Amino acid sequence: MAEQTTTGSEREAIASISSQLVSLHKQFYGKGPVKAKAFLVNDTVLCLLEGGFTVVERTLIDEGREQTVHEIRRSFQMAMEDKFTAVIEDTLGRQVRAYLSQVHTDPDVAVELFMLEPAGEPAKVEYHDEVLASED
Fold this sequence. Notes:
about 140 residues; 5-stranded antiparallel β-sheet; 5 strands
């Protein structure tokens, strides 16, 4: 099977998705992740965001209140779904079928997963980009 390469526009789209999601986290959580990677695999966009807990969340985690942080994040992610999916849809020009989000406290990682409407293209893995943000 021939290896498929990523075009410059695909790399730019993935880099844009990473940057926009970092910006949304910074704007609405009050602190953005310090590291972000985005992947486009077939009809799925996966974003890994590291180091994004606020001082309040980190305090709760340190005091054994991880469940409280998970509940707050789940509620907030539901409220942010339209903004997060708009990033994907506007950047890729494809409809998001489903949005899933999860946080993990140790290590400090959030996962944003977007299932896209099928594009009818053969299976391939696209370029991933890494964005480093300053820790606030």
